[in-house]
Write a structure and sequence with these properties.
This is DUF6915 domain-containing protein. InterPro entries: DUF6915. The protein has one domain. It has four helices and no strands. 0% of the residues are buried.
């Protein structure tokens, strides 16, 4: 799944075709106490394996079609 497709889909669906600037986003965020707790999760682990493999298996198994149609159309498939 191309990352660019995900970003473009987000802009089409959620931003109504307009790409907001950083100032647009930051000017509208209402800070909450939990947003500035200053703690780093040192227990975080890197993902294991290639996430594309799992996604492809889910598409092949009929568990998801997220992005497949547009991706295939863009490739001319």
């Amino acid at each position: 799944m191309p990352i660019r497709w995900i970003g473009e889909q987000h802009v089409r669906e959620d931003c109504q075709g307009r790409i907001p600037s950083l100032a647009d986003w930051l000017g509208r965020i209402q800070p909450e106490p939990w947003m500035a707790n200053g703690q780093i999760d040192r227990q975080a682990h890197e993902p294991v394996g290639d996430p594309r493999t799992k996604w492809l298996a889910e598409v092949a198994g009929g568990k998801t079609i997220l992005g497949l149609k547009d991706w295939m159309e863009a490739r001319g498939s």
